[in-house]
Amino acid sequence: MMRIVIVHYHLRPGGVTRVIAHAATELMTRGVSVAVLAGGDLPGDFPCPVRQVPALAYDEGDASADPLALHRQMEAAAHEALGGGVDLWHIHNHSLGKNLALPVVVSKLAEAGQKLLLQIHDFPEDFRGYNYRRLRDFIPVDQFAETLYPQAAHVQYSVLNGRDRRFLSRAGVPDEGLHLLPNPVWVPESATEDIPDWPYRLWLYPTRAIRRKNIGEWLLWSALADSEDHFATSLAPENPRERQRYRGWVRLAQACNLPVSFDLATRTQLSFATLLRSAYCLGTTSVAEGFGMAFLEPWLLDRPVAGRNLPEITRDFESSGVALSHLYNRLPVPLDWFDPGEITTRLRRALTRLYADYRLPPARESEFQRAWNAWVKDNQIDFGCLDEDLQAKVIRHLCRHPESRKVLSRSRLTVAGEGVIAQNRRVIQEQYSLPAYGERLMAIYQGLVQSSPGPVSGLNCEELLRAFLQPERLNLLRL
To answer: Which H or E run contains 202?
Structure first.
């Protein structure tokens, strides 16, 4: 029997925890012995044995990282949970910089010949300068590449999207050690509760309202709404910094008398599936995703998705047959709604800060121009590139000058028809089902377990950083 350990920093409610639970369930149906290690509190109803490893928790505060202690805790917990040795370690997001000891432990496991599947869904190179600096300060320069991204025949990588696969390939991961493993998409059946009969058309953004979800753009759409429409977000953020920004949006919505409800899931206490089914349409205005579950889940409940497209992410979905052409790539607003130089000043400041965070030479004028050309076309700027202050200025302008709405080239969200809903539901059920995910994962495990340990080297970390830090990808909401 194959013995697998899955490792993550935590098992708090959310997408990663759901995916790990689904993976464990599918693997056990195939005769695999699975245990999960995580820091923090553990759920009581997980489908496989779980063990708490305190040293796995985020260490972004004052805690000192201790790789030796983490290594001992992981080895002891895994052997106790499985009743023996480990055939393969499946570790999520080891390189993110949320726990400085974890990449060191991973490199030690690699050096010891342990079989490793490193599943990365968030990269420190992807506009997470604080995390990257922490890693650079903690890991010796001459050991950085092989510690953060070990490369060997018995160490393989999996990613959620084709963009990340391309970037890792450019950095040196061979095709046989690099796997595209999209998340399974599954929505639970509704509970016995009744579906609310709202007195309006509910446009629901089913997300925790953190910064990269671009909540200001959702409020902009509410400012453009018809009288029968009402907009909502499902959950408030938990992080204190995020909550401060969130409260700013709540105050703006109240001041402008926008048809918006916040934290609807908490207020109604409805199940996730019931809340989604109660909506006229589901929305997303996010400017960055690792996988993009919001583009897929609603169709399984016969609900359309409207809003902002993320071609880096959705290209994979469209290649598999999911129809998303009704989503928009840009939401242009006139540059002359802003003070002269206001945006260029913020863009230059952002690029300067970004390059400093990654300890790169100052941005050249050509790099500034590349970012500007991505943001601005035909004297209009994409609303999603702006920060909260600038977005709020646009929303206030629309509320004070309703006649200015006609200046916007896009003034309403496009909703897909019944035929598209049925097609997308069918494709997602076939391509992203739990059994299909289990089969992909088993094939990766079987190939990796049969591999022979070899010498460990490192990836080209500079090439990986250049792939992510393209000026065209800059967005003020991600800094």
So the answer is: strand 201-208
Q: With H, G, I as helix, E, B as strand and everything else as coil, classify residue 233.
A: strand
3-class secondary-structure state, position 413:
coil
Query: Is 360 inside a domain boundary?
Result: yes
Q: Contact, 359 vs 130, CB < 8 A?
A: no
162 and 13, same domain (yes or no): yes
Q: What is the pLDDT of residue 190?
A: 61
CA 139 distance to own-chain centroid: 26
User: Cβ neighbours of residue 474 under 8 Å, at least 6 residues apart?
Assistant: 127, 347, 350, 351, 354, 371, 374, 385
Bridge partners of residue 92, in order along the sequence = 119
Question: Residues 6 or more apart from 354 whose CB is under 8 A from it?
Answer: 127, 129, 363, 469, 474, 479
Q: Could you tell me if 35 and 172 lie in one domain?
A: yes
Q: Are residues 311 and 457 in the same domain?
A: no
Tokens of 411: 């003034």
Domain that holds residue 370: 332-409
3-state helix, strand, coil in the chain (%, to 5): 45, 15, 40
As a whole number of angstroms, the distance between CA 134 and CA 124 comes to 10
**46 and 116 both lie in a single domain:** yes
With contact defined as beta carbons under 8 Å apart, do 98 and 138 qualify?
Answer: no
The Cα 428–Cα 409 span in angstroms is 32
pLDDT at 61 over 90: no
CATH number for position 92: 3.40.50.2000
Proportion of the chain above pLDDT 90, given as a percent: 92
| Residue 276 included in any domain | yes
137 and 84 housed in the same domain: yes
Residue 212 phi, psi (nearest 5): -70, -10
When divided into structural domains, the chain yields a total of 3
Contact in structure between 20 and 7 (CB atoms under 8 Å): no
- Taking only the tens place, the pLDDT of each residue in 159-202 is 999 999 999 999 999 999 999 999 999 887 766 688 999 999 99
- 292 shares its domain with 402: no
Stated pTM of the model = 0.95
Place of tokens 């993110």: 96
Computed over its alpha carbons, how large is the radius of gyration of the chain? Answer: 23
